């Protein structure tokens, strides 16, 4: 297990202190490049932290979700190719949802730093992240590592959405029916574009805030080290002064005796 794996498996409230302590130990050992890499590790969001813990503790349930996600993707491909109908797609989607709900039930047992159960909004973000991992290869790879720093989200029509559109339309269906759906498709495309732009803007703001937090953490770590060095210097000076005072008293006593 790498130091990064260990950090992202810790309780959330310990992440920053443990990361800074590890970076300090690496610097003291002369491993400055590794220390710099550790210092750059970002603290996960609450939802990302919860997913990381589920990855570590619920391997069987996670495997069941990924298996259901694979089946859902295959069902969608079969519908698009005309090898299956929408009923099979809905069944696959229901199975994926049940596997997801089983994992979320485990997530409800995780506690925040304050000892409270995760809020519904955070559990929804956990659910979105796991759903994305179930049906997207890149998201699954990120989740498997167990070192997420922010939640993920699947953006797209989704399996049921795809199954309900022209992919299930018979080959001989009149063109007029397809044309009648165009305004709705255009409106959805606009909403999707707007949602993606909002998510991108929010992600950029999150990244800026996390960079600012990292800088502040680094400043605090340097200040703490400077304080520790100062206290050590004060202690050494006090010890020297006490020794000098004792020596002076002995010299003064010898002088008085003469």
Notable traits:
elongated; 77% helix; 258 residues; mainly alpha
Could you explain how this protein is built, in words?
The protein is mainly α and 258 residues long. It has 2 domains: 44-164, no CATH class; 183-258. Helix content is 77%, strand content 0%. The protein contains 11 helices and no strands. Helix 2 runs antiparallel to helix 3 (32-39), helix 6 (86-107) packs across helix 7 and helix 6 packs antiparallel against helix 9. The N and C termini lie far apart (72 Å). Residues 157-181 have low confidence and may be disordered.
How do the strands and helices of this protein lay out in sequence?
Blueprint: H1 3-8, H2 15-28, H3 32-39, H4 46-57, H5 59-80, H6 86-107, H7 120-135, H8 137-145, H9 158-164, H10 175-180, H11 182-257
Q: Report the radius of gyration as a whole number of Å.
A: 29 Å
Q: Helix-strand pattern, N to C?
A: HHHHHHHHHHH
Uncertain parts: 157-181
| Largest sheet descriptor | none
| Tally of structural domains | 2
Mean pLDDT: 79
Q: How does the overall form come out from the CA principal axes?
A: elongated
Category by helix and strand content:
mainly alpha
Helix content: over 70%
Beta-strand content estimate: under 5%
N- and C-termini, Cα separation = 72 Å
